[in-house]
Amino acid sequence: MDKQRGGTFLGFVIGVVVGLGAALAVAVYVTKVPIPFVNKGQSRTADQDAAETKKNKDWDPNTPLYGKNPAKPAAAAPASAASAPKPATDAPPAALPAAKAESKPAVTADPLGDLVKSRSAGAVVEPFSYFVQVGAFRTPEDAETQRAKLSLSGVEAKVSEREQSGRLVYRVRVGPFDKKDDADKVKEKLDAAGLETALVRVQR
Fold first, then answer.
1. How many CB atoms lie within 10 A of CB 171?
2. Using one digit for the tens of pLDDT, what is the confidence trace for 25-39?
3. What pLDDT, in 10s, does the model give residues 77-127?
4. What is the distance between the alpha carbons of residues 183 and 149, in angstroms, rounded to a whole number?
5. Residues 6+ apart with CB under 8 A from 57
6. What is the pTM of this model?
7. Which of 39, 48, 107, 120 has a CA-to-CA distance to 69 between 20 and 30 Å?
8. Is the CB of residue 103 less than 8 Å from the CB of residue 173?
9. Domains in the chain, please, with CATH?
């Protein structure tokens, strides 16, 4: 009976010792082995925390919808404003080319004829021709002598005959001149040389 009690007590003591040893081993294991979640939270630095905060601040839930080249919705407004057609302006500016076209002179089908007409209109043609007569002679010899004298003086003259009062008269004349002013200049020159002259006007 005493042996049975001694064995039971010894078994109890051994069980307690084994239980305490197991509990101690578990406690040592738990304290030595790092806890995954706790160590992960403690290993983060201040820079990592700041980066995480910035990332969360700039996070856009619609980012996956933008595709490979995300475009901010705010930037679409200026683009649409730029692509919008400008309102049509008033009609008067379109009428300017017509006004300019009206100001151009009309072009006729015969520009050469217009040029001749403009020149003829600018140049006034007198209806008379002018001669400076330097004598009228009864014989052609006297007329030729006068013409030769004028030729020596540098004045070209011509002898022409005309019937006057039933007789032939040989006239020595310088000309013809289209303008009276030109004839007057030659007459003044001959008068200064001591010759008797007369201004003769003949209708064209």
1. 21
2. 877 777 766 555 544
3. 444 545 555 555 555 555 555 555 555 555 556 666 666 666 655 556 678
4. 19
5. none
6. 0.39
7. 48
8. no
9. 1-67 (no CATH), 128-203 (3.30.70.1070)
